[in-house]
Amino acid sequence: MPLTKISAPRHLSSNQVQALAAAVQDGLVKTCNVPPNDLFQLISRFDSEEIILDPHFGGVNRSKDACVIEVVFLLGRTDDQKRALFRHVAEQAVGSGFRADDVMIALVENSRMDWSLGLGVAYADHHSKA
What we know:
- By secondary structure, this protein is an alpha/beta fold.
- The chain has a single domain, classed as Macrophage Migration Inhibitory Factor, CATH 3.30.429.
- The chain is built from three helices and six strands.
- A four-stranded mixed sheet has the order 2-1-3-4, with helices on one face.
- α1 links the parallel β1 and β2.
- The longest helix is centred in the N-terminal third of the chain and has 19 residues.
- The chain is globular.
- The two termini are 15 Å apart.
């Protein structure tokens, strides 16, 4: 059950940002064994002065269209799966009008004990009863 957070410049069209969100979900499904209906995304839009990203760090050339994607999910993906996810999302984003340099992704892994899906119950406890 990944939680995806997408931070995007406000000037991008809703269609473009939705295409990026779809690319991330498609990548999670195709490269990281996430069930298609495990869809939890938060999209935040920011004015240009509210997104401060080094335009060249990491050997890329970010433009004013740069977006940051953060995916929080359970431990267990291999480095190859993560690399495949990065490639997949970037390729899909380029197909939606983004530049590959403008797609920054950060993955955060944790355990079932680090989640509560509701009702004040740890996912680890819920999962062990299922």
